[in-house]
């Protein structure tokens, strides 16, 4: 995920020489240096002060660690941050209040909820600003992700819903492809052929949805001829309550995100 953010940032025009990254292992550091010419990469196993050195003098700092480590990281870099540095968190479920308590008072902080399609330039990222963030700082934070996807600004209370739809959403699409492939096998297709058909169909439909002005309902209706095969399939989905099932899954994901936030607070 973090490399996807980095690649998108560079693709959007930021010079590699203006970016410093930190990783845990020297092997990973060398890999990134080779892949992105001019990029400075510090490895923690070589320099225990790598994170401190990376944030000194930075205008934007992206914290890309797991939720359980984000508070400790905030504390460890707090003394090296400039008061104007915008801190951007990609850690799921950790609230702005929790992170602000671990950072210097007044530190600009933006919490984000990205998703894995950032890796292919088709990500969706929700952003919420802390109380000390200006409009210009929020725009700068959003620009970090625009090279790899679409950004939306939402109140923090909506981030759990964003997580349930776009954060977890890629897994729903992959789950659909799995189910379609399994259905094909049950109908007599070779498993490898069924997987190819399911995978390419879901990917192709996603590409159509990515076109400007695409409306999923209109696209569905265009494929659904009256009294045809697709209409019969959609009717079976509706009878089984598929829309309600999807809504229940999204609700469960949002509730779990809220639970994690409480656990980590």
From TrEMBL:
This is Pyrroline-5-carboxylate reductase. Its main location: cytoplasm. Gene3D superfamilies: NAD(P)-binding Rossmann-like Domain (3.40.50.720), ProC C-terminal domain-like (1.10.3730.10). It is found in: Cytoplasm. Keywords: Amino-acid biosynthesis, Cytoplasm, NADP, Oxidoreductase, Proline biosynthesis. Pathway: Amino-acid biosynthesis; L-proline biosynthesis; L-proline from L-glutamate 5-semialdehyde: step 1/1. It comes from Crystallibacter crystallopoietes. Belongs to the pyrroline-5-carboxylate reductase family. One of its GO terms (cellular component) is cytoplasm. The keyword Oxidoreductase applies. Catalyzes the reduction of 1-pyrroline-5-carboxylate (PCA) to L-proline. NCBIfam families: proC (TIGR00112). Its EC number is 1.5.1.2. It catalyses: L-proline + NADP(+) = (S)-1-pyrroline-5-carboxylate + NADPH + 2 H(+); L-proline + NAD(+) = (S)-1-pyrroline-5-carboxylate + NADH + 2 H(+).
